[in-house]
Amino acid sequence: MRSLRILIGVVLLVAASFGGFVLTGDMLAATDPAAGNRQRGEAALVVQTRPAELLCFAETVEAVGSTLARHAVTLHPSASGRVDEVLFSAGQRVQEGDLLVRLDDAEARAALASAEATVAEAEAAFARLERLQTTGSVTEANLEAARATLLRANAERDMAETVLRDRSLVAPFDGVVGLSDLARGQLVDSSTEVTTLDDLSVIQVAFAVPERYYARLQPGQSVALTSPAFPDRSFTGTISAMATRVDQTTRSVALRAEVPNEDGLLTAGMYMQATLTLDEREAPAVPERALSVSGGTSYVHVVQDGVARRVAVTTGRLRDGMIEVGGLEPGASAIVTNLQRLSDGDPVEIEPLRQVEAAQ
Fold first, then answer.
1. Measured distance between the N- and C-terminal CA atoms of the chain, rounded to whole angstroms
2. What is the mean pLDDT of residues 82-93?
3. What's the angle, vertex CA 132, arms to CA 130 and CA 134, rounded to 5?
4. What SS3 state is found at 158?
5. Counting Cβ atoms within 10 Å, is residue 36 exposed (0-12), middle (13-18) or buried (19+)?
6. Distance between CA atoms of 257 and 206, rounded to whole angstroms?
7. pLDDT tens track for 90-143
8. Is 12 exposed, middle or buried (0-12, 13-18, 19+ CB in 10 A)?
9. Are the C-beta atoms of 225 and 118 separated by less than 8 Å?
10. Is the model more confident about 233 or about 133?
């Protein structure tokens, strides 16, 4: 009798469990009419799609750097003396050989005139002895002594010309002169800083990238550069030189990029953000919201013949809200809405994207 009661209880318990399962299913179907309809084949899930686009993705590395003039020098006088003329102003563009500063050169000019007179006298004496040698009136020793005297006179004249030339400071190359406190009448020597001269026709940007990129670097690679001074503008340069050694402290490689600067916007010493392009490729891309992840695998649902198909993809780089995907053909209709209610093989109906959403 006791066994009969236990058997009846087990039967009642199983019946109650089955009834609860059926009731729960009916309730879920009532709360999701679309799902219930899809199960009965009566309606399809309305979704929106975006075609997979073929976009260009670039692998880049970013670094910070500083600008340098292609040629830069601090100018000093070659001699000591009093300033007679200052022939430049700060910010002035000068050409190679332009006179910038002239020191008092009266003494140097007098010394040159004396040296030239000595040369003329030595030349006349040597010429006279050459004529006399043809008659045998002059010995070879006297002629050689006159030749040596002429050579010394020429050397002294060359030295006088050098001394006079050192009284003038000229531009060694084309460029822009900087600030100067030099004034007429000031006493200067070879340690006095007159001004700076920078060749800004081409700007160099010095920066460094981590050692792991060394094998992928080479001169000629493109570099995109931005400066806080010009937030709405980007400058394009190319790598012109790279260090032959890796810095043992920072484990980085020093690089130099050159940027044309015909408009003169950039100057030396500016902070720059450099973006170095290592690789570029074209690949299919879909909006990030079209991506689903399950168990470490990424999926995209696409529409094929009115049915949703789940396609496993590999993901890559991001660009403007689009993500690179491998395993998907360009133009495939990727579903971007109602993914949480969608299963592989569900019938779907495509709703056109609104204009604002399409633009986004």
1. 75
2. 94
3. 80
4. helix
5. middle
6. 7
7. 999 999 999 999 999 999 999 999 999 999 999 999 999 888 887 777 788 888
8. exposed
9. no
10. 233
